[in-house]
Amino acid sequence: MGRQMNASTVRYVPHGGFLSAYFVTMRPYLLFVSGSAGAVGFSFAHGAPWTDVLPGFIVLFLSYGFGHALTDCFQTDTDAISSPYRPLVRGLITRRQVMATSLLGLALSAVVLTGLNPMLLLLGAMAVLGLIAYTPFKRRWWGGPLWNSWIVALLPIIGWLSDPRNRLADLFQMLNPISLPFWAGVATVFFGYANFVVMGYFKDISADRKTGYQTLPVVFGWRTTAICSDILAAAAALSAGVSVAARTHARIVPMAVLGLGLLFSITAQVGIHRVRDEMRAHKSISHVVRVFMLYSLTIITSNVPSWLPLGILYYQLFEFALQSRPEKSQV
What we know:
Elements: H1 18-25, H2 31-43, H3 50-72, H4 76-82, H5 87-90, H6 95-116, H7 120-132, H8 134-138, H9 144-161, H10 179-201, H11 205-211, H12 216-220, H13 222-245, H14 252-274, H15 282-303, H16 308-323
Helix pairs in contact: 2-3, 2-9, 2-15, 3-6, 4-11, 6-7, 7-9, 9-10, 10-13, 10-15, 13-14, 13-15, 14-15, 15-16
């Protein structure tokens, strides 16, 4: 444990100027995470045709990248050690450029969402403020996973409210048949992403220790953090199961997708207990991202079975983007 990348391990140098470098900074292979989280909310929106939710989906798909680029501006200290391939660390783009572009992208996203439903202005503002405050919480072992996850858990709620016929108050009515499966879906997003955050710490232990980030593995060690990851993985699986079981649609396909997600989850959790080399942790981390995608697809197809072909194509594009990432030891 403790090996870090150096210039010889960096396999990618972006070409094409600012846009190319910024695109790498957005982590395109993870844009699918925010898109799928938003689609969980869309799928509860009266089964609206996918063409009706496309504008909101595009916004939520891109918002993750804008958010990632923004938070990178505040953690170049640890990224310089663990992720030297990133354009911001290499000086190919500046913090001012990245911050301006990210804030503009997030602001335009908020405008589009507000046009769909004025109630989304507040939620959009909350998400942006949460992103700006992310780095101080990441420095504390108790803050990073929870802070990151509540922001991502807003996305299915935003997806639901993108249909102007929906009201947030409807989701708190116990007699509303979608209340339980919806909030179980939000919990799936929350716990699934929290596990991704915790897993992600394993690849950066040496860098975080050197730069004063008191993350879970830095403070409590590998084994304890792996057990915390197990708990989050179990909570995500249970939440996804509850969401599907509470629906009245045919469950054969969603349960099959859920089973595939469970298989990847078990593989990830067993793997992270077995390795002690942070440069090899990326295999389990990649599986956790797959689990997030599959659990989201489970919930989506349980609500709108006709979206399955699009969901399969979307997942295939995600796998292509994941395999094309510039540095294989980083996810």
